[in-house]
């Protein structure tokens, strides 16, 4: 079961144009900032938004975009689940099969199996208002699976949950998705959801794909500022000549030799700050200006301006020792071994 699609949606002030290939059993996450076009892409797959010229969707080699919404072999989980409030969990799940002509008994049998699969057999008679957020999410997933879809679409599946519930529901969802043999496309702007749930990430910005790959690969080698911020890295574009990359006027020594346009990335924790020029002049040294200071978990994140902008994570003790305040000039250094360089 494979999905091949080119999703083109043209609106007056926005154009989506992305190619999507998802294999059987594969979970692909569309990740991107607000307004990037993720929901539009999902709605286009579901048939809720029409495709513009050039767009097409094939599932197992058969055109999907020519089918009416109700005939598409698609299961969808919406952000707020949209469970029917007056139906029990069982009847919510049985709804799809009933609509597709199954007898009441058959529909309920399928629904009971699915509720059992998502660990909610004991909630069959409960109405949605008596379910927790995590349980409602699982009922919505069971309902989407009840029509035996070949394509499963999930729109921000964990967004309605609080941070604590999210943690357990996330791993449960990963487990449930692993048992689905069709193609799954999910939309999220939470990098952690994407990393945990997906086999492959597709990063969308301004209606276009800017990067895709396995989660670990995307995290290690970000190619846009948005992705770098998501995974918490400093990212620059420069020009490499052997073991040196020039970012603006600042030369960086890097561990791996490279030629031509290149990305340079390093973690804020790899950045050291000094009040005076450090002895022995470590390589990758420049003078920056402190633009801001904020708490960041157990450390302090220093925003640096100057010839290149960077984030540095230092300990509260170092902040006090160095007496750092906004506007102050500091020496900034990064070890070559702490940088990652890769072709742009
Ligand atoms: N029904 C609509 N009519 C016109 N423009 C729309 C419509 N829905 C969305 N848009 C616009 O299309 C663009 C993409 O929106 P979309 O909702 O797909 O983004 P998104 O990546 O899902 O964002 P978010 O994470 O905020 O949900 C935005 O510029 C949005 O304003």
UniProtKB/TrEMBL annotation:
A GO MF label: ATP hydrolysis activity
Residue span, ABC transporter domain: 3-231
Record protein name field: ABC transporter ATP-binding protein
GO cellular-component term (any): membrane
Metal-binding in keyword set: no
GO biological process: molybdate ion transport
Mop domain mapped to chain residues: 279-343
InterPro entries cross-referenced by the UniProt entry: AAA+_ATPase, ABC_SmlMolc_Importer, ABC_transporter-like_ATP-bd, ABC_transporter-like_CS, ABC_transpr_FbpC, Mo/tungstate-bd_C_term_dom, Mop_domain, P-loop_NTPase
Keywords assigned by UniProt, alphabetized: ATP-binding, Cell membrane, Ion transport, Iron, Iron transport, Membrane, Molybdenum, Nucleotide-binding, Transport
Domain of life: Bacteria
Highest classification ranks of the organism: Bacteria, Bacillati, Actinomycetota, Actinomycetes, Streptosporangiales
UniProt keyword Acyltransferase, yes or no: no
């Amino acid at each position: 079961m494979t999905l091949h699609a080119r999703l083109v949606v043209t609106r007056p002030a926005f154009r989506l144009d992305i190619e999507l290939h998802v294999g059987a059993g594969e979970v692909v996450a569309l990740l991107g900032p607000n307004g990037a076009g993720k929901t539009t892409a999902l709605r286009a797959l579901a048939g809720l938004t029409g495709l513009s010229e050039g767009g097409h969707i094939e599932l197992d080699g058969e055109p999907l975009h020519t089918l009416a919404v109700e005939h598409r072999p698609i299961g969808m989980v919406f952000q707020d689940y949209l469970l029917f409030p007056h139906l029990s969990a069982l009847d919510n799940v049985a709804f799809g099969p009933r609509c597709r002509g199954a007898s009441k008994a058959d529909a309920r049998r399928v629904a009971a199996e699915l509720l059992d699969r998502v660990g909610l057999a004991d909630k069959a008679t409960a109405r949605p208002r008596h379910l927790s957020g995590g349980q409602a999410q699982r009922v919505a997933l069971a309902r989407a699976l009840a029509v035996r879809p070949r394509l499963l679409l999930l729109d921000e599946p964990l967004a309605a949950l609080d941070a604590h519930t999210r943690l357990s529901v996330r791993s449960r969802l990963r487990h449930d998705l692993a048992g689905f043999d069709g193609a799954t496309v999910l939309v999220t702007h939470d990098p952690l959801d994407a990393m945990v749930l997906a086999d492959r990430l597709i990063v969308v910005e301004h209606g276009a794909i800017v990067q895709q790959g396995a989660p670990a690969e995307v995290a290690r080698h970000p190619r846009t500022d948005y992705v770098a911020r998501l995974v918490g890295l400093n990212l620059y574009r420069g020009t490499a000549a052997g073991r040196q990359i020039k970012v603006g006027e600042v030369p960086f020594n890097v561990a791996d030799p490279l030629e031509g346009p290149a990305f340079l990335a390093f973690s804020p924790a790899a950045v050291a700050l000094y009040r005076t020029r450090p002895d022995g002049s470590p390589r990758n040294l420049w003078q920056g200006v402190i633009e801001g200071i904020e708490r960041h978990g157990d450390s302090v994140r220093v925003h640096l301006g100057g010839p290149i902008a960077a984030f540095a994570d230092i300990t509260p003790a170092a902040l006090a020792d160095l007496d750092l305040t906004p506007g102050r000039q500091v020496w900034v250094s990064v070890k070559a071994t702490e940088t990652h360089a890769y072709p742009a």
